[in-house]
Write a structure and sequence with these properties.
The structure is a homodimer of 441-residue chains. The first copy, chain A, has 441 residues and is an alpha/beta fold. Chain A is 37% helix and 23% strand. The first copy, chain A, contains 15 helices and 17 strands. In chain A, the strands form 2 sheets. In chain A, strands 1, 2, 3, 4, 5, 14, 15, 16 and 17 form a 9-stranded mixed β-sheet that branches. An 8-stranded parallel β-sheet of chain A has the order 6-7-8-9-10-11-12-13. Chains A and B meet through helix 2, helix 9, helix 11, helix 14 and helix 15 of A and helix 2, helix 9, helix 11, helix 14 and helix 15 of B.
């Protein structure tokens, strides 16, 4: 077979079911699909390929998967920090969203987030926001893979002034984007059980199931939310949502911080998926999700950054580091969340969590060629005993030199291909300036 | 005055007592000393300087200070992770140290750590290890500023086979390096209250006080240590050390994880300084030090990475991020450890903690020109509302473009000056290969 490209001279972290790590590995792909993952058996010039890429002793692995993000919110990065949640939301984020979220700023914020993700090794993300058609159009330009959902909330929202039409707007978005691009998978995102009525939640989930798409929702992010739902409905958020039929194998629950054992049993029993966002949960002081327990129960957990306003970056390598370390110290056990478990969260488990486990998340023949190369010729990545340890505990996004999505190069030798990053930053800077003037006044 | 160099067109985070942030700032220095920090008042060409450096809209701030590190241990980076502390130490770190720590490997590990620190914006570190004369010679080559201490432990140690001579060896080191270079400040480092006898602790502290140097020690890192000292001496590690006269204003206590209120009163009353190492404490599951409480009590707290074997990098920007977020979630309060507090830990408080508060830690006239420039022309640093927020929550070490120590350039436009990083990595890689073969067999 003639491959479009072959990558060699790297340590390949396959993330296949045996978590095979191939020291002098070769990865070959053609027409966007991986056809070869093996230990190099012959001189590299004997492989037949359009291009032969030298990974220079680095790490070759699946592109990372950000299981929960709000792409347009990058324009609010660092707008307000270190504040109580209510003040942060009510005095900064909500007013800024109300005044500055438009189809145009959503486009700019999305391009900015995509530029950041591409340059830090993330090849797929799962987003929920408003003006999602503008998000989708922007993501499509960048070449990233994404699951994208129009937000549903029972308040007037950007682009959806009448909350009575929120589920309809989400449905229209799904229909518009279904089968439009192999890289864009539409989805529906209900904000939360405390911002959506019982009726809205049921209607939105029914629509998602009818359309055969992923249903996303923030659940049990804060203790206050749990208390509020408990007071309103007499049961926990998870049990409340389950009673509405909202939780099943096509439901992605973000955060899931405040769960009791019964909640976990419900999630496991329904085969629900979780997007864990440790840095956002830490920064907002929301709490620590019981992730090691969930994983032990067999629940599928992916890793997300959440939006830039509460992180404040989209670097999944640093997020992996935080995930690994946070749970060790909270559990008082350095053996939990080992490097392999955490890499799986950011790759194959994330893929499964967002419904794309069959096509991405590992380097295996038949899977999409979503591949990154990590340049390990750096002091902070020297020496290298265990590549999986470096990925979690020492690499950061700036070490990613090459990125491919569906076999197409998005970054080569640190330079983004076909993306005018300077122009994106210029436009995002202008939006930031306007917002800054608003908050200063 | 004719300056050697002037940096302009950046936002200057001074970390002076008012934490002044100067938007279009100018920093001028001559003969290694800062003489000018002001808002630009005239055309930059009207300033008289040998070189005028354009920060290109980036952030100009004091070089970061790593208050606790073991430089040579970078050769063990990622050798073993995700293990119980005792197994990690006894099966990996101690055997590797016993077999592979020599004057030569100490030199290579130190150069590797210095390369990493220089390239990620750290200009000063505080180290304790063995063969410290080899550490000092290596640091001197790199141009970094450092407080360096020969380790004291009541076991046969690298270079000190007879524990009875450990305090003597530390004293010899201090005498050799006192006044040898303005960049190297010698110190004495007792490993801990559980690895040094009462007699050793007293003798080492007396020697440090007599020589007028900083005394460093690991204290209350783990719960097991506290229980052990409690069992042996009937009191907590802090109170035990205080009873020996070991704790005073020239004592730097690393970790300080397991403290009760009385311990904190002792530390505050004695004016002791703390080196907080959140990522190491997280990774080893040691616990969470009560840092917000200590700061409230007025205790001076700096920030350290600890050695590379338990982190696994020396990036103080990511360490700041972890410090800020960890305490928020543990305290359940997003307002603790705000960005300014955390930046102070990594700069002026760190400087004070290691005894150099008068000469470094802030950009003010009269202080040493230890200065870094952060390149903010990156998607993940766009837009910029608050530079201090970016420094803590979005920047990582790879964003540092320029580094000066005592006015001397160590990194310009991302390239290390006068340091053969490739050769250092080659040598460290060779050492790593030998260690890998040992652990594999």
């Amino acid at each position: 077979m003639e491959f479009d490209r072959i990558i060699y001279n790297g340590t390949v972290i396959t993330v296949n079911s045996d978590f095979e790590i191939i020291k002098d590995g070769v990865v070959g792909f053609k027409d966007g699909v991986i056809h070869l993952v093996e230990s190099r058996k012959k001189d590299i010039t004997l492989y037949d390929a359009g291009e032969i890429i030298d990974a220079q002793g680095g790490i070759v692995m699946p592109g990372l998967i950000n299981a929960h993000v709000h792409l347009p919110m990058s324009i609010f990065r660092g707008l307000a920090d270190d504040l109580p949640l209510a003040q942060w939301l009510n005095e900064y984020i909500f007013p800024a969203e109300q005044k500055y979220i438009s189809r145009q700023t959503v486009r700019i914020g999305t391009l900015l987030s995509c530029a950041e993700m591409i340059m830090s090794g993330t090849t797929t993300c799962c987003d929920g926001y408003f003006y999602e058609d503008a998000v989708a159009a922007a993501v499509l330009e960048t070449g990233l893979r994404a699951v994208l959902a129009q937000g549903v909330i029972d308040f007037p929202a950007p682009g959806v002034p009448d909350p009575l039409k929120n589920v309809e707007a989400a449905t229209v978005f799904v229909k518009q984007w279904k089968n439009r691009s192999s890289l864009i998978t539409p989805s529906i995102f209900c904000h939360s059980p405390y911002t959506c009525s019982t009726d809205t939640l049921k209607k939105a989930k029914q629509a998602a199931d009818l359309l055969g798409v992923l249903f996303q929702i923030h659940v049990a992010e804060t203790k206050q939310e749990v208390e509020q739902i408990q007071e309103m409905h007499g049961i926990s958020p998870v049990k409340y949502l389950d009673s509405l039929g909202v939780i099943n194998g096509n439901t992605l629950i973000s955060h899931a911080v405040w769960l009791d054992e019964e909640d976990m049993d419900v999630l496991a029993g329904r085969n629900a998926r979780i997007a864990h966002c440790p840095e956002s949960n830490m920064k907002l002081a929301s709490g620590v999700a019981p992730i090691p327990d969930m994983i032990e129960t067999g629940i599928c957990v992916g890793l997300g950054t959440d939006g830039c306003a509460s992180n404040n970056n989209l670097d999944l390598f640093v997020e992996m580091d935080s995930a690994a370390k946070l749970h060790k110290v909270v559990k008082g056990d350095p053996t939990v969340m080992d490097a392999k478990t955490v890499i799986k969260m950011a790759t194959i488990k994330g893929a499964k969590a967002i419904g794309l486990g069959d096509i991405i998340g590992s380097l295996e023949p038949g899977k999409q060629a979503d591949i990154i190369i990590i340049d390990t010729q750096k002091p902070h990545l020297t020496p290298m005993y265990h590549p999986e340890s470096h990925v979690v505990y020492a690499v950061n996004g700036a070490d990613v030199s090459d990125v491919f999505v569906s076999g197409k190069p998005l970054v080569r030798n640190y330079l983004p291909i076909n993306l005018d990053v300077n122009e994106i930053m210029r436009q995002a800077g202008s939006v930031g300036l306007a917002i800054k003037q608003m908050t200063a006044s």
